[in-house]
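quick one
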Amino acid sequence: MSEKRKIIIDTDPGQDDAAAIFLAFGSPREIDLLGITTVAGNVPLSYTSRNALILCELCNKPEVKVFAGCDRPLKRPLVTAEHVHGKTGLDGPELAEPTYSLQSRHAVDFIIETLRSEPAGSVTLCTLGPLTNIATALQRAPDIAPRVRELVMMGGGFSEGGNITPAAEFNIYVDPEAAKIVIGSGIPIVMMPLDVTHQLLTRKDRVARMRAIGSAPAIAMVEMLEFFERFDVEKYGSDGGPLHDPTVIAYLLKPELFDGRVCNVEIETDSELTAGMTVIDWWHVTDRKRNVRVIRKVDADGFFDLLIERFARI
Ligand code: BDR
Ligand code: CA
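structure w/ beta-D-ribofuranose:
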């Protein structure tokens, strides 16, 4: 990658969000992190904002700006996932309360102002949680949509189905109305669904390689992942849990690790049974607009090599 990629990370940390943020922190040659925006999702906003600050502090990144965003979905009550991530969202390691502070601006204002002030087509949005902040920004300032270079999201599922309901993946399920706005915005979108992330298991040998790095961030990450995986190991009977959110950053660093195709994706918002389902027209059986690059394959060993190499650079 020749030029540095300007990104905003929109997130609800979450142990796997933490892994994505660490991957960005470990890649300063390729990534220019303009800011982290937080949203309610895995846990309420007060925790996701606190957690983002803790992660910056753990990696000694006082220069990274963190903006708190929306505390609830556009139209629905907030659904959280403490059953996966623990009460704080970063359960696992002992973590001190942050001394770093949030920026005073709201995340949505930061997103709008950044997209308006940076050259058009230069900023990539990386979304690791429900899409409430991005949809709110698009509703308030529709002029920003054509200025976004690309939006890479973790969300949705195709043949894997859902993880919070049989039909829906968590990030989309929490705020389907927001996802619908984002998917329909005309922004070039890359989607990392469960089909990809379920190929990326925190196997013991991989976690041992992270532990061997020996730094404080690496050890904290290992302790986070060991807590995080217990739920999915029990649920799926797999060797480790799926690592969802770092796929977004890995795609920017090494797109050759991934494979997918551009097809139509629509979001179900009406049905009670399938709310938040990503209806993916993989086989092009409709003539609806091909609006999303849906990824389904990943080189898992290459992904973990990248992750571990970059964690070691923090
Ligand atoms: C997604 O939901 C959250 O629990 C994870 O952080 C990830 O973003 C996976 O469905
Ligand atoms: Ca997340």
